[in-house]
């Protein structure tokens, strides 16, 4: 058996004719087995690729169907009794903002003041804000050389024990009064 008998024609056309020599019998059998295994592996690879493609295609089609169903669903149908009912629904009151929302708005709105409040008002705002967000003060009172820090500490310390929600409400009211004036 010759080498070119074992390899595909297209490949043998690319090789020099001097390579087309007789192959000894044991090598000949091994070469044929290797070629068969290679062919089988190639076919298996192609088969796997086709199966994977088909699986992906089926999965994609299922997802498309689910999406179409989700988009195509109509809102729940009203019953005949609901359609014939002549009652006009009572107007709903607009939802009141929560204390948290009002507090957050107030802490943003305070930044829009055109003039700076006096120190007593600033201290009160600081103390209410800290009490509302953190709660009771802790730690040591700053030293006498740190005047501003000491002032803030004392203002916040006066709010000690005040409930956070009450502090938030007081802060909101204080900001609203400053914005109104």
TrEMBL record:
Q: Which UniProt keywords apply?
A: Lipid-binding
* GO molecular function term, any single one: fatty-acyl-CoA binding
Cite the SUPFAM superfamilies for this sequence: Acyl-CoA binding protein
ACB domain: from which residue to which, for each copy?
Answer: 99-181
> One Pfam annotation, family name?
ACBP
Q: Where is this region: Disordered?
A: 68-95
Bias (Low complexity) ranges: 73-87
Q: Which PROSITE patterns match?
A: ACB_2
Which one GO biological process term can you cite for this protein?
Answer: fatty acid metabolic process
Whether 4Fe-4S counts among this entry's keywords is: no
Put simply, this protein is called ACB domain-containing protein
- Provide the species name: Litoribrevibacter albus
């Amino acid at each position: 058996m010759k080498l070119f008998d074992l390899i595909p024609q297209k490949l043998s056309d690319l090789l020099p004719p001097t390579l087309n020599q007789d192959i000894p019998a044991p090598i000949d059998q091994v070469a044929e087995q290797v070629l068969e295994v290679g062919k089988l592996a190639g076919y298996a690879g192609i088969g796997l690729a086709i199966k994977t493609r088909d699986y992906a295609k089926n999965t994609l089609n299922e997802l498309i169907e689910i999406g179409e169903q989700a988009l195509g669903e109509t809102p729940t149908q009203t019953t005949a009794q609901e359609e014939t009912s002549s009652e006009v629904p009572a107007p709903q009151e607009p939802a009141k903002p929560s204390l948290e929302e009002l507090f957050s708005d107030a802490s943003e709105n305070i930044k829009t003041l055109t003039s700076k409040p006096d120190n007593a008002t600033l201290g009160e705002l600081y103390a209410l804000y800290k009490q509302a967000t953190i709660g009771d003060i802790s730690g040591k009172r700053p030293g006498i050389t740190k005047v501003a820090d000491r002032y803030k500490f004392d203002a916040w310390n006066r709010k000690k024990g005040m409930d956070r929600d009450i502090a938030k409400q007081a802060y909101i009211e204080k900001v609203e009064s400053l914005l109104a004036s």
